[in-house]
Design brief:
The chain is of the alpha/beta class and about 250 residues long. It has a single domain, classed as 4-Layer Sandwich (Metallo-beta-lactamase, Chain A), CATH 3.60.15. It contains five helices and twelve strands. The strands form two sheets. It has a seven-stranded mixed β-sheet with strand order 4-1-2-3-5-6-7. The longest helix has 18 residues. The protein is globular and about 45 Å long. About 45% of the residues are buried.
Length: about 250
């Protein structure tokens, strides 16, 4: 893929999109997105959280989407919506220069259509679906009108910003390696490894558990090679320790 970024990463912010409890084992997970800023003044948004209706009335939204069979929202208010999280960093929706969707599950795509004229980076396998995955066969969203850049293999968006194609959790799951000036390499696993204990359960419940296991091993080997800081997709143990907007990793 042709480089989409002119600058190199300068800082990374974790966006707090709320808390969700999984019924199966009671674990409470943080829902997160990321903002990466570059030396060229670029603002790259990775994932956009739950749809706004969950902040207005989580119970009604859960019933509408049939999400109650999986879990329930624990904490998700207006302050956890993507535009408000970006505002903590002094960023307006119009400041976003590139959006990346790690995959298209409900807790990642809620504001995918809220950034007019912003190009979207997404795996070709996800974009090939008739609609975003959303939740449990309920494909409630249409694809927004946008210029799509499709990922079919590991690639670089620019110096210090790698995108890794790691299907398993979802058909087109993506992960990212961001090289920061002071922190060094940061591996954002997204849901390719939502939490370390997934390795023990061999990614049961994933779209393709064997493929998920393969790519998780590949990601961990890469992190060891780079001595990278790892930020997992939904780790209950790690979530309270992460710096969240307006704090940043630099």
């Amino acid at each position: 893929m042709q480089a989409l970024l002119k600058g190199t990463p300068t800082r990374l912010a974790v966006l707090d999109y709320g808390l969700f409890q999984v019924h199966e084992n009671g674990r409470v997970i943080g829902i997160c997105g990321y903002l990466v800023q570059t030396t060229a003044g670029e603002n790259i948004l990775i994932d956009t959280g739950f749809p706004a209706k969950y902040a207005a009335n989580a119970d009604a939204a859960t019933r509408e989407d049939g999400l109650g069979s999986f879990g329930q929202v624990v904490a998700l208010g207006p302050e956890n919506l993507a535009p408000v999280q970006l505002a903590l960093l002094g960023i307006e929706p119009s400041d976003i220069t590139l959006m990346i969707q790690s995959h298209t599950h409900i807790d990642h795509v809620g504001f995918m259509d809220a950034f007019a004229d912003v190009p979207i980076v997404i795996a070709a396998a996800e974009r090939a679906l008739s609609r975003p995955l959303y939740w449990s066969g309920k494909q409630a969203m249409e694809w927004p009108e946008a210029a799509y850049h499709l990922i079919e293999e590991d690639c670089s968006l620019g110096t210090g910003f790698e995108v890794l194609l790691v299907p398993g959790h979802a058909p087109g799951q993506l992960a990212f390696v961001i090289d920061l000036p002071n922190t060094g390499p940061v591996l954002l696993t997204s849901d390719a490894i939502s939490r370390p204990s997934e390795l023990d359960t061999k990614f049961a419940g994933s779209w393709d558990p064997d493929l998920a296991m393969h790519h998780a091993s590949r990601l961990l080997a890469r992190a060891a090679q780079d001595r990278a800081t790892i930020i997992y997709g939904h780790s209950p143990e790690q979530w309270p320790t992460l710096r969240k907007a307006p704090d940043c990793y630099d």
